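#help-structures
NK: newbie question, is this the right format to request a structure? protein is tRNA pseudouridine synthase A
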Amino acid sequence: MRRFRIVMEYDGSCFHGWQCQPKIKTVQGELEKALSLIANMPVIVHGSGRTDAGVHALAQVAHFDMHTRMNGSAIKKALNCLLPEGLAIHHCMEAGPAFHARFAARAKTYRYRILNRPLRPVLGRNYLWHVWQPLDRKAMDAAAAYLVGTHDFKSFEAAGSPRSHTVRTLYSVFFSDEPGIPDVFAFEVTGNGFLRYMVRNLAGTLIQVGRGKIKPESLPEILEGKKRELAGVTAPPQGLFLKAVHYDLNNDFRQPAMEIKPPPGIGMGGEGAG
């Protein structure tokens, strides 16, 4: 039995989320179906975490164990021949037996795309959130700064999905324009773990700051309150992308000109930010 690590991208609008569900098309389900055909026996795929329906991935990571003489390159080619549109494998490589896509992960980066203009989008509407009201970007930047560091993010956790604890560390939180794409900008966040819908709840809250509905200086109070109703709306899923999964705590996810000192030995501690 050999263990392989894969890195993939997918269009979330083509699937009902990551996790296998009976009679429903999911990313994990399509991967397991294709790998089981290649191996001629059942193969179970373990992802770095779940993404919900409509949420996309640029570099989702997973692993699986398989009896095969094929190398990673051959498995990648076979998978890309069998997988449906909307899902493609970038890399497939043999991993050590101790590697686990979820438990070995140390941080994730998510990117949430926003179109801010009065006219509704047509092309690309499945890959961003259209906000037609004017936004105060300076206020949004000021609010985002309060989120960096270790906090209890219970106010940003989806109702009905409690975790054993809701403390997470965000290493960087910032907004950036997308070059060459007018009126589109993105909210990007890297952290050691995320609660269910946490990124979408953060994005929705920061949009309400931009609209003047929430003051930037209210963010510490929202965090300390630990109540979902204190934060803003949940942003829709189609704007969210899992950008990267990080397996060591070097500075490959560091925001330029920002020093990050992540605490040692902290794992992901959560999933399903979408």
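mod (FA): yep, format's fine, and the tokens are attached above. The radius of gyration is 19 Å.
NK: thank you!
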